[in-house]
Amino acid sequence: QSALTQPPSVSGSPGQSVAISCTGTSSDIGNYNRVSWYQQPPGTAPKLMIYEVSNRPSGVPDRFSGSKSGNTASLTISGLQAEDEADYYCSSYTSSTTWVFGGGTKLTVL
Amino acid sequence: QVQLVESGGGVVQPGGSLRLSCAASGFTFNTYNMHWVRQAPGRGLDWVAFIRHDGSDKYYADSVKGRFTISRDNSKNTLYLEVNSLRAEDTAIYYCARDGHDYKLDYWGQGTLVTVSS
Q: What is the pLDDT of residues A75-104, one digit of tens each?
């Protein structure tokens, strides 16, 4: 049950786009479209932003999008806003009937 | 609206036990699978356990298997996590989360802090 691999940090200026990668294995991301992304501002509970690789729950801006290729999933945030500054976590269902999270990526809006 | 409220955290000595609770409201609790997820101070999210809507299946992270037990009482709309043989590395905020039918954790509580210290 090794954690999924995310970059520790990314940054971008307001209005720009950033992408956060999430690399797993053929036992999780590579074998299932059950990849989710969560946003966690400091001191708050996580919030679901993307599910099943690329679906957005109601209320999540369409600036947030997800994709997957092989064992790697990605979250792209376009038109960056100051309120997007937070930690982002990917997650996947696994073949062991467990769930696994990434180590988290801190997004800084410059 | 969906609400999940955790309780039962506190300070406990190594080797000790606690029972965490998660009171659910705003949805039909007995039709949803549920999870526990934890987060050590300054660290990332760590999946802990899953229970099916009727309690028929339970799955655990290797790090807690044999020490933690997930359960639920659908008559009380409450999820539980019994944590035993606690270690310093179990110190974390413990969140309960609803599984929104598509392997996604769509609602989270605010968490309850467990501190393991002598």
A: 999 999 999 999 999 999 999 999 999 999
**pLDDT category, B22, cuts 50, 70, 90?**
very high
Is B2 part of the contact surface with chain A (CB cutoff 8 Å)? Answer: no
Within chain B, strands assigned E span 3-7, 10-12, 18-25, 34-39, 45-51, 58-60, 68-73, 78-83, 92-99, 105-108, 112-116
Question: Per residue in B65-108, pLDDT tens?
Answer: 999 999 999 999 999 999 999 999 999 999 999 999 888 999 99
The reply to whether residue A104 touches residue B47, judged by beta carbons under 8 angstroms, is no
* Cβ neighbour number for residue B81 with a 10 Å cutoff: 25
**Residue A64, φ and ψ in degrees, nearest 5:** -95, 125
Tell me if chain A has a CB within 8 Å of the CB of B47: yes
Residues in A touching B37 (Cβ below 8 Å): 46, 101
Asked whether the beta carbons of A85 and A107 are under 8 A apart, the reply is: yes
